[in-house]
């Protein structure tokens, strides 16, 4: 089995407070993993560690069988976080041209046109990003992530700020990536959207993986019951430091 | 590196925030000196050199911070760190950008300073752009490093000058000596020119080497 992610006892502390606590997991190529959990559970920190934006305090992380600090590993990652990573005083085409050059995307102009069409922003290509609504900026951030066709997609609450059309665009893009055999990890509070795509579900609470689906992804109703019991259980078993 | 530089130049052309504010600040500092020293008086080369470099350092510090502040909005700095670009290359791109913008400002501010301070013309002044360039390289190398270090702190406006100015002292002593000699009509300024060169080499190489540690969370 070729693992895209191998995490071994990952711990991340901020000012001596553990936000991730001995997290271990292995994720194979082509898996779509939904990470669920309450606010402050450590989902974002987990994703930022996987995206190489945070270095774990202890533990070992391997991506595509190599050190996550290698430039060729980062070339295969796409991260959509709470911030868009877009320059508000540049237009979508200028932003994507910059990222395209940084990732050395071949046939860049065609690729930019394709991703802008994919997120429904083709007519806004020359408008500065500062004038965009939150939803439009989130769509453009998705275009930025898709631009270099990453093998591992890390999405932190990607549905934030999207209207119904935006959600449909995102769902379609993710389904396409899944069909291409890309690995996707997403965090969301929307169980229905998250579970629709997942091949595996994780519940994170207090910096630990508190529950993991075994083989099949439960229905939304089943999952909600499981989620609440896991959070309750976790609250009593692991005291706050 | 060129992609990063292209982006910074494009942002500057679009917003015109950096060069225009640097230029206005440089001009104001020079005017304050002119008024304080007496507008009717012809100044000596030592005073002229000191004013030139004080102006450059204080206006330049504003530019250094701006170079990284544009990366803070919308978390763009994280976007840069995610790119398959070596952090050393990121340092070099920001350094070249800072040198470019400061040279642009000085190409106007330096002649204005010489005129307002009524410094006499001499042929040795033709070498002044070279000295300014050498000084700006050293200043920008050290400044880019410290601006990256302080930009994510809340007290960055205070921290940058407090950390940067003491380390700039050797550069400033050398730059003022060389400039003052040039303003006095001498071209070859011996050891101070070598000090300037050594400062540049040391801090460009140091910055390139330790930048990955500076930007790492």
Give your account of this protein's structure:
The complex is a heterodimer of chains A (241) and B (217). By secondary structure, chain A is an alpha/beta fold. Chain A has helices at 43-50, 71-74, 92-102, 108-118, 134-147, 164-179, 191-197, 220-237, and strands spanning 3-14, 17-28, 32-36, 58-63, 77-80, 152-156, 183-187, 200-205, 208-212. Chain A has a domain at 1-76 and 153-162 and 185-241: 3-Layer(aba) Sandwich (Rossmann fold). In chain A, the strands form two sheets. Chain A has a six-stranded mixed sheet, with helices on both faces. Chain B is mainly α and 217 residues long. Chain B has one domain (2-8, 22-215). Helix content of chain B is 81%, strand content 0%. Chain B has eight helices and no strands. Chain B has helices at residues 2-15, 18-37, 45-72, 76-82, 87-116, 128-150, 156-183, 191-215. The radius of gyration of chain B is 18 Å and the shape is globular. The model of chain B has no long low-confidence stretch (mean pLDDT 88). Chain A binds chain B through residues 51-55, 71-72, 74-75, 77, 79, 81-90, 94, 98-99, 101-104, 128, 144, and chain B through 2-4, 6-7, 10-11, 14-15, 70, 73-76, 78-86, 216-217.
């Amino acid at each position: 089995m070729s693992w895209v992610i191998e995490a071994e006892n990952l711990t991340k502390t901020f000012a001596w407070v553990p936000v991730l606590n001995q997290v271990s997991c292995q994720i194979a190529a082509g898996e779509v993993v939904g990470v669920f959990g309450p606010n402050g559970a450590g989902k974002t920190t987990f994703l930022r560690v996987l995206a190489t934006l945070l270095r774990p305090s202890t533990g070992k992380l391997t991506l595509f069988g190599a050190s996550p600090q290698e430039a060729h590993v980062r070339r295969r990652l796409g991260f959509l976080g709470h911030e868009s990573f877009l320059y508000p005083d540049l237009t979508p085409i200028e932003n994507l041209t910059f990222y395209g050059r940084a990732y050395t995307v071949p046939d860049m102009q065609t690729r930019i046109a394709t991703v802008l069409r994919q997120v429904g922003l083709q007519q806004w290509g020359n408008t500065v990003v500062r004038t965009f609504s939150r939803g439009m900026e989130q769509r453009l951030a998705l275009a930025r992530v898709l631009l270099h066709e990453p093998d591992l997609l890390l999405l932190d609450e990607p549905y934030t700020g999207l209207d119904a059309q935006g959600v449909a665009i995102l769902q379609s893009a993710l389904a396409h990536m899944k069909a291409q055999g890309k690995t996707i990890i997403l965090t969301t509070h929307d169980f229905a959207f998250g579970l629709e795509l997942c091949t595996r579900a994780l519940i994170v609470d207090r910096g630990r993986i508190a529950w993991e689906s075994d083989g099949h992804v439960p229905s939304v109703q089943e999952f909600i019951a499981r989620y609440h019991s896991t959070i309750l259980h976790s609250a009593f078993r692991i005291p706050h430091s | 590196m060129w992609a990063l530089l292209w982006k910074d130049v494009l942002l500057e052309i679009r917003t015109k925030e950096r060069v225009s504010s640097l230029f206005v600040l440089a001009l104001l500092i020079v005017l304050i000196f002119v008024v304080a020293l007496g507008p009717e008086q012809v100044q000596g080369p030592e005073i002229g050199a000191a004013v030139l470099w004080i102006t450059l350092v204080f206006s330049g510090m504003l530019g250094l911070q701006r170079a990284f502040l544009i990366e803070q909005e919308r978390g763009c700095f994280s976007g840069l760190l995610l790119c398959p670009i070596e952090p050393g290359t990121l340092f070099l791109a920001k350094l070249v950008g800072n040198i470019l913008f400061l040279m642009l400002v000085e190409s106007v501010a330096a002649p204005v300073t010489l005129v307002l301070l009524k410094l006499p013309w001499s042929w040795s002044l033709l070498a002044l752009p070279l000295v300014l360039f050498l000084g700006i390289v050293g200043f920008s190398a050290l400044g880019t490093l410290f601006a990256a270090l302080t930009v994510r702190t809340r007290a960055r406006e205070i921290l940058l000058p407090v950390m940067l100015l003491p380390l700039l002292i050797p550069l400033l002593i050398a730059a003022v000596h060389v400039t003052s000699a040039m303003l006095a009509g001498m071209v070859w300024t011996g050891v101070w020119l070598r000090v300037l060169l050594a400062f540049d080499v040391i801090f460009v190489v140091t910055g390139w080497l330790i930048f990955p540690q500076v930007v790492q969370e």
